[in-house]
Structures are given as C-alpha cells and as structure tokens.
Design brief:
There is one protein chain. The chain is mainly α and 344 residues long. The protein is built from 15 helices and no strands. The longest helix has 30 residues. The model has no long low-confidence stretch (mean pLDDT 83).
Length: 344
Amino acid sequence: CFAWALEWVRRGPRGLWIVRGIGAASAGFVAWIVATDRLVPILDSMVFFRWLAEPIVFDTISPFAWVLRIGAMLALLVAAVVLGAVLARAVARRQPRDEMRLETAAYQPKAMAGSQFAALLRTDRVGIWRSIPLRRGLFVLGIMPGAVALAGGLEWEMLTILPGLVASGGALLFGVNSWCLDGRGALWRDSLPVSPQLVFASRVVTLAEVLMFSTVLTLALACLRAGAPTFSELVAVLCGSVVVVLQVVSRSLRWSVTRPYAVDMRSARATPAPPLVMVGYSSRLALSTTMTGLVFALTARAGADWSIVMMLPFLVIAAYRLFNTAAIWADPEARCKVVSTVAS
C-alpha cells in the first residue's frame, strides 16, 4: 500500500520533488532516532503493534486472545490488499512520467565497443540501469537492509546473512526470468552474428554485477556501526558475499532458460514471473542463501582458512550449474523457445 501510494504521489503534480522530500525527511528521522537511541522506546510506544507481536502461545495467553490476534492480523492483511488494489487502480490512471521521459530521451552514441562481448555487455547494462523500476528496486534493496542493520547495530558475524537476502531480492526483480528484459528486442538480438555462449556470458556478468552492487551498498551501511572486524570476520563476509551472488546467478539463469515467461517489465510494479511462481522462487532462494550465510557465520568464528575452504565447494557447484545452463542455451531449440516466449 505504501509503495503504491508513493507511486501515485510521484506521478502527480511536482510528485518527484515531494517523494524526494519525504525520503530525505524519513532518512533524517531514522538517523536521529538511531543516534539518540530512541528506536526501542518508540517501538514500545506502539501499543497495537506490540500487542500483535507478543508470543502467540497457549501457555502465556488465553485461546480467545490468540484467536483475537490472528483475526486482527487477517483483518490487516485484507485491508492492505483492498487498499493496495484501490491505489494501484488510481496509479494506472496517471501517466508514468519518469518512464515516458526515459523512453523519449535522446542519448549520445558512444564509441564502438572493442569486442563482441563488450558490445553485448554494454547492451545488457543499459537495459538494466536505464530501467527506472529496476534501478529503484536495486537501490532500495541495497539501502533498506543496510539501514536496518545500521539501526540494530549488527555485529560482523551476523552480516554474513545480509548478502544472501539482498542477492535473492535482486534476482526477483528480473534475474529469475532474465531474458524478459529484451522483450521484442530478443528477436533482433538472437539474429546477431555472435556466439550464444557470449550472449550467455554477458548476461551472467551483468546479473552478477548488479547483485554485487546492491550487496556492497548494504554492507557499506551495515558496517558503520559494526565496529572494526577481525581478519576472520572480514574474510567470512567477503567469501559469503561471493558465494551467495554466484549461487543466485546460477539458479536464476537456470530458471530463465528452462522456464521463460512473457511479461511486460515497463510497469513500475511488474514482476518477471506469475505471483505463485515468484513465491516458489523467493522461498528457494531465501532458504539456500540464508543457510549459506549461517555457514559463513560459523566460519567467522572458526578462522579465515575455514571460510576459504568452505567457499570452494559452493563455487564448484555454481560453476557446474552455469556450464550446464550455458549448454542448454547453446541448443537452438531451447534458445528459440526462450526468445519466442519473451518476445510475445
């Protein structure tokens, strides 16, 4: 509901400056409550939400209170869905100014790329960073978890969990159906006289870059209050970040090749796959990356050597999955299925 409300304001008169003002004010308020240690008192003052968050256990509260809490949460869920639908309809009646401005803009052509791979990589990068919804999503994914970690003052041992959450969220923006970004342009790109392996390698590098960008942004914010790390903790966080990014890239591109979907990614709230499919993707990615983060949380205590040793099998599995997916993509029939689906 809040996201749709912001989008409705953004598309209105002077909406961009209003949203920027709200964002700046919110950032200042959060910084103030964190700096003055007022976060816990403010949360405690929210009686209704504290009441909802109490342990729902028969031993501590009566069955009637348990049912009342569940009913309140279900009522909030229904109200949020209904209000979100109303706001989404209101947003659809306003012109997407940012998207229209971007699509009608003129860009100065750059110098010719030095190789086929460089040209493909440039095209893939532009397709992501010139997409307003994707650009917003990547920045939000990088800033929000880092801000939460900053407010909570997480220690370095717990920072190993954050890269997996950020990488999983970034993949859900477009990576799980990566070729959907090409849309009808997939027909043109598939007709280019370049090797399919180069096209696949370009998509691997681009996806890994954007996921690592959000991950680094999150860790940069989180480490501001985490203090100075030990060498073992630093190595564990770095190894865990590399591992989860490659895990997510290999799984996402596997799904992109074997289960393509035709979607329009121009919408501010578009998803690369149907909702139920996205739930499955989200669960699998979150489970695997969280477990990986816990492994490196343990190696942060065991020593830097253990982090490097534990990283190797994860890298081998991810590389094996990528090579298998590249072989599938090189098959003309499989590639034709992907291109015809996303271009429709």
